[in-house]
Amino acid sequence: MKKILCISLENLGDVLVSLPALSAIKSSIPNLEVHFLTKSSHQQLESIVSQVDQWHYFKDNFFATVSSLWKEKFDEIIDFSNSFQSKAICFCLFQRRKAINPFDFPIQINDQLIKCEEESINEFSLPSKYSVFALGARRVVRVISYPKMIELVDRWEGILVLIGDEWDKNFGDRLEILFPEKVINLCKKTTLEQSATIINKAEKVITHNSAMLHLSVLLGKQPVVLYTNTAPTDGFLLKGAQIKPIELLGLTCKPCQKIETDVCPLFHFDCGMKLDLDPIFE
To answer: Pfam families in the record, alphabetically (predicted)?
Structure first.
C-alpha cells in the first residue's frame, strides 16, 4: 500500500480548495493511504472530510512535527502550500516532493467530498426553508460594512440563518435584534460540520470571499458572493465554481494590496461601503 502525505499549512479556505485535487489523487491510485498535515486550528476538518485516512497537525515546534512525520515513512509528499515552511518539512523528511496547484482540478460534486449529517443540526430546530448568510471572512476588509448588512437583511425575503465566529457574533446579535422575525443568529454556535450541514440544506447562500464560499461551492451551491477588496478574477476560485459575484467595479485601488491588513490602506473602504446590492435581488 502506497502512503502519501499531503501538506496545506494555509488558511481553512485553502485547505478546502485542495479537496477536489485530493479526491482525484485518491481515486486514481488504488489502495492509497492518505495522510494530511495542516494547522492545529483546522481539527474540525476531520468531521467533514472523508478522503483522509490520518490527520497530522503542525505543532509550534517545527522539529517535533518533523519527528512525528518521520516515523510514518511516506512514499511521496504532495505539497499544496508550496511555501518555505512546507518545503522545509519535505527537505527534512528526505522525501520526493510534488507541488500541486489545487485550482487546476475541477470540482467533482459528490456525497463523499464533504460529509453532512442532518442529525447534527437537530438542536437548532431550523425551518424547512431558509437561506444562509455567512457573515465573516479572514480579514475585516473582506466584509461589507454594517449598514450594508442591515440593508441586505432588510430587503431579503424569507428566513436568514447567520453563521460565523465570535467576531461575527457582534454583527449577528445586532441583526437579530433589528430583524427578529427573519433572522436566526447561529454565530459562534455551530461547529464546522454543523455549518456545512446548514449550508447544504439552505435554499440560497450569501457569503463573502471566505472559507464558507469554498465550502458552499464544494457542496454544489451557487452562492451570492460579496466581494469588497478582492475580486472573482483574482484566480482563487475552484475550477467549475458557479457563483453570483457582487462587487463595486471601477475602483482604481482594487485589489488594494497583496498582503492584506484589517484596515483600508486609503481609509475610505469604498469597496465595502458603496457596494450596490441591487443585483442580489434581480
So the answer is: Glyco_transf_9
Q: Is there a shared CATH topology between the 2-104 domain and the 119-281 domain?
A: yes
User: Using CA atoms in the order 18, 12, 209, 206, what is the torsion angle rounded to 10 degrees?
Assistant: 100
C-alpha cell at position 51:
478522503
- CA distances to 8, 62, 92, 224 from 105, rounded to whole Å, are 16, 30, 28, 22
pLDDT score of 156 more than 50 = yes
C-alpha distance from residue 139 to each of 208, 229, 243 (Å): 10, 10, 21
Under 8 Å CB-to-CB from 136, ≥6 apart: which residues?
143, 164, 165, 167, 168, 208, 210, 212
For the chain, give every domain's residue range: 2-104, 119-281
Interatomic CA distance for residues 18 and 214, integer angstroms:
10
Q: Based on the number of CB atoms within 10 Å of its own CB, is 139 exposed (0-12), middle (13-18) or buried (19 or more)?
A: middle
The third-level CATH classification (topology) of the domain covering 119-281 is Rossmann fold (3.40.50)
The 10s digit of each residue's pLDDT in 79-95 is 999 899 999 999 999 88
Q: Strand 54-58 to strand 2-7: parallel, antiparallel, or no bridges (unpaired)?
A: unpaired
Class of domain 2-104: alpha beta
pLDDT for residue 21 is more than 50: yes
Helix (H, G, I), strand (E, B) or coil at 102: helix
